[in-house]
Write a structure and sequence with these properties.
The strands form three sheets. Strands 5-4-3-6-7-8 form a six-stranded parallel beta sheet, with helices on both faces. It has 29 helices and eleven strands. It has 668 residues and is α/β, with parallel strands linked by helices. The chain starts with a helix and ends with a helix. The relative contact order is 0.07. It comes from Deefgea tanakiae. Residues 583-666 form the RCK C-terminal domain. Keywords: Antiport, Ion transport, Membrane, Potassium, Potassium transport, Transmembrane, Transmembrane helix, Transport.
Length: 668
Amino acid sequence: MPINLHSFVLLLAAAVITVVVCRKFKLPAMLGYLLVGMLIGPYALGFIQSSDEASHLAEYGIVFLMFTLGLEFNLAKLNAMKRIVFGLGAAQVGAVLVFIAAAVMLAGLDWKAGLVLGAAAAMSSTAMVSKLLSDRGELNAPHGQNAIGILLFQDLAVVPFLIIIPALSLPDGSVTIPLINLQVDQLLFALFLASIKIVFVLVVLLSLGQKIMRPWFNLVAKQHASELFMINILLVTLGTAWLTEAAGLSLALGAFLAGMLIAETEYRYQVEDDIRPFRDLLLGLFFVTVGMNLNFSILISEWGMVLLSLLLLGPVKIGVIAGLAKLFGSTPGSSLRTGFALGQGGEFAFVLLALIAQGGLVPSPILQATTAGVILSMLLTPFLIQHSDKLVLRLASSEWMSLAANLHNIAVRSMAANGHVILCGFGRSGQSLARILSQEDIHFFALDLDPEKVREAASAGESVVYGDAAKREVLIAAGLMRARAIIVTYSDTHSAMKILELAHQLRPEIPVIVRTQDDSDIDLLKNAGAAEVVSEIMEGSLMLASHTMMLLGVPLNKVLRRIRDVRETRYQLIRGFYRGLNDDTDEGDRQQPRLHTLQLTQNAHAIGYTIAELKLDKLQVEIRSIRRRNTPPFQPEQDFQLSTGDVLVLLGEQENLAAAEMLILQGK
């Protein structure tokens, strides 16, 4: 039953309100989507009686998610991770499947029911886990690599499961192979055909795709048309997904392969930015449809089965995954974090459960209780991952020892340092700064969260250790009380605010210099106590201006004075910009102050008012300059009176500028 416009508008309104509430209370947005689906679905308020049409649309959210995962895991990286993907991943799917199958058979069901329920339980939520780990910046952490590697194998394992489950529902018997007149078991023959399909599709896509993809994208990019580039991305993503589906495989596998192929080209990052809006929108819809499947009557009538399925998908699955991760060489803390990340049901579980229902392999009450358990486990996952650090410290005593050893290592390395500079982050900017400080015989001590980078830099003799500068214990161990300054060399406002808060609490007088991408957070960081805020975009503009002025013959002392004045006024002279059609439209860009010109027509409300009387400061908008008739632009005083024909240059954020324009023109 298709979703009509009325129901769809209700769905969007409920999603917006719920997600706003979740963000206000710092809860994951996907939790809000699940709650929306539960509330408006057929088993609660009943605003939407069927989720079939939405489910079909939401499947494309999984397609785009798998595509972006493919962009992250190119062929070289997948080969480097083969031990995790095909070792740990295969062990996880096999172990969970066998454990669940054994439990189901002990409960009195046959081996077919045990196998299919075990296959569904082995799946975890690629959509949820990858999003949560990405938001926490943990995709490249050891447990993040374990989780993504296991998820990749699960996605590959779905393919044979999609073939096995319908085959199991067929009546026992054999099939005759044409030409050779050989009779074989139907299940074995179906698996044989599927294997041939998989090998053929993989060989064709990975061999021919690499030869075609780069020249094709070069051809499209040379047209310099952003809409054509976007259409091409959709063509490649959905076209490859269609090819794999036509071959009897999954849409998600095809999208993943398309992402891997594009990851080998220089267009990877542009493609990732362009596809993000589609992925996030459809993924949100997917989680809404997942919530719609929760039948509250089943929760009451079959609460015992629901609780059992939740325990098997939660604590039992977490324990199995953590144990396997430890066997494959992970630390106890990393193993537990991997288990917490994957201890839930997944989106592909719903696909497999639907096939199980069609084949009648499992009694309906057990199937519905399993579905409810999968949904509840997904609801709990954001909280598990959010509090995983605290849980790991409680459950793994060695994690305390590892944390203490790391702090001891930092303290020992920094013990001899006095009057040094603490560098938070040792990326490209941090390393460049470190070299300049060394030239001036200024001692530094760097902290970074990339273990490989720390290992290589430390072995080369650099004063750098592994540690999170946004944690109190790490800053103290790095010699905060003896340091001369703290420099935040990476552009992360959230982390920088934590460092500023800790520095203010522990040693208020120490200067903290913060790097930021643009001018949107300069005032926020300054008000939080930053001694200086260095904006990459602003400093780039200053360097362009200084070189230009010197080439044009402006005296060096005048150039330096001009740059100093701009910096001392927090880049006020060069803040704001005029927006054009070709400018980026990401979230960070929308929050930046911009310039907007506005001409006062004959009936404008502001005519005759002074600037002070308009009270634009309440809207956080200022009049940067005014041009009157043929006079050059000038910066007006607060008592300047406006008249017809004046052209105002306003500075502010997009939403505030719109409100200021309505006030100036209409008085509203």
